[in-house]
């Protein structure tokens, strides 16, 4: 899981740097709404996750959770944070 997150974060950082035309990630970094675009996504997907959980829909829970994790990593990158800051916080709670 750590490796998956690290690889995804590296792709996000690359998209931020290179801004390819066909990249959804790049479109979040250049969105006219600024960081609100990713913040709105996180809000919408949190609601969708809650609904999936209430329905006991395991497939939908995994889908929405993945959407949230991806957009969370985009937010960290947007704030020029590193994945280790999240990992350090989680480690400090063990
Ligand atoms: N993990 C993701 C990822 N998760 C979600 N998304 C996009 O986030 C958007 C979510 O929007 P919506 O919630 O409106 O859409 P939805 O989830 O299809 O529909 P609902 O949940 O609303 O029913 C969709 O366009 C998804 O494609 C992602 N886009 C990209 N990635 C990763 O980022 C990499 C780089 O992608 P590009 O930047 O597009 O090259 C990819 O290889 C993936 O590894």
Features:
94 residues, mainly alpha, Helix Hairpins, 5 helices, globular, binds phosphoribosyl ATP, nucleotide-binding, phosphoribosyl-ATP diphosphatase activity
Verbal overview:
It comes from Halostagnicola kamekurae. Pathway: Amino-acid biosynthesis; L-histidine biosynthesis; L-histidine from 5-phospho-alpha-D-ribose 1-diphosphate: step 2/9. It is found in: Cytoplasm. One of its GO terms (molecular function) is phosphoribosyl-ATP diphosphatase activity. This protein has about 90 residues and is mainly α. The chain has one domain (about 1-80): MazG-like (Helix Hairpins, Orthogonal Bundle). Helix content is about 80%, strand content about 0%. The protein has 5 helices and no strands. Bound molecules: phosphoribosyl ATP. The site of phosphoribosyl ATP has 10 residues, from helix 1, helix 2 and helix 4.
CATH class annotation: Mainly Alpha
Under the CATH scheme, the architecture is Orthogonal Bundle
Reading the helices and strands in chain order gives HHHHH
Helix % is over 70%
Stretches where pLDDT is under 50 for at least 5 consecutive residues are none
Total domain units: 1
Question: What is the distance, rounded to the nearest whole angstrom, between the alpha carbons of the first and last residues?
Answer: 17 Å
Number of strands: 0
CATH fold description: Helix Hairpins
Q: Quick one: CATH superfamily?
A: MazG-like
Helical segment count:
5
Shape: globular
Radius of gyration: 14 Å
Bound ligands: phosphoribosyl ATP
């Amino acid at each position: 899981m750590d490796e998956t997150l690290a690889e995804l974060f590296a792709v996000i950082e690359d998209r931020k740097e290179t801004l390819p035309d066909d990249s959804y990630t790049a479109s979040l970094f250049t969105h006219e709404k600024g960081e609100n675009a990713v913040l709105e996504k996180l809000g919408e997907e949190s609601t969708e996750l809650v609904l999936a959980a209430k329905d006991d829909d395991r497939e939908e829970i995994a889908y929405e959770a993945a959407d949230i994790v991806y957009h969370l990593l985009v937010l960290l990158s947007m704030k020029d944070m590193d994945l280790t800051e999240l990992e350090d916080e989680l480690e400090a709670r063990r």
